[in-house]
Amino acid sequence: MDKKQIEFDLILEKDVLEKFDRATVFKEFKFRIATPSQLGLFADMKGDELAKLNLANDFNADSLTFEVKSKQLNKSKIQEIIDIFHNNSTTAEFKSLSAIGENEFLDFVKYKLFYSEEIEMKKSEELTAVYIFPFLKNAFENKKEYLDAYQN
Question: Quick one: 77 and 123 in the same domain?
Fold first, then answer.
């Protein structure tokens, strides 16, 4: 038997993405990642940014927060990070992603419910519904109090 960790992925908020597309000015951008084992996702980073990522790995850190502020940030660079999140979220393990525009706070992953669980399965087996449905049931039972409070 082999143990595998499974967890919920964050999903980008569609309405926030639409607001992002319409916005022209961004004053702050922030994201938090679990320190990825594959630094290749951030190959374009240079200097201080890459040094911070390597330092987080040296510290054996569980997460790293990037925050940039300006009178007007480069929207295309923000879009690049959003694209990394969207295309590689399971590798990069983003925990949060937000921006402040001219007059609005954009939380791309507004509703977060973190839950992870280690499951035992045969090495030759694939992760299928046989494993996923009990995981969902356990997640619901584990977070039921929170979900009930949120509903009310």
Answer: no
Q: Residues 135, 69: one domain?
A: no
Full domain range(s) for residue 51: 2-107
- In order of 15, 32, 33, the CA distances from 62 in angstroms are 30, 10, 8
CA 39 – CA 90 distance, rounded (Å): 13
- Could you tell me if residue 144 is left (phi over 0), alpha (psi between -120 and 50 degrees) or otherwise beta? alpha
Question: How many Å apart are CA 141 and CA 55, to the nearest integer?
Answer: 37
Quickly count: other Cβ atoms within 10 Å of residue 106's Cβ: 21
What does residue 40 show for φ and ψ, rounded to 5 degrees?
A: -60, -25
Tokens of 126: 């694939």
> What's the rounded mean pLDDT across residues 30-47?
66
66-115 pLDDT tens trace: 899 999 999 999 998 888 877 764 455 677 889 999 889 999 887 766 77
Residue type, position 102, single letter: E
- How many residues are given for the chain? 152
Give the chain's domain count: 2
75 shares its domain with 136: no
CB-CB contact of 28 with 73 (8 Å): yes
Q: Which of 112, 42, 98, 46 has the alpha carbon at shortest distance from 67?
A: 98
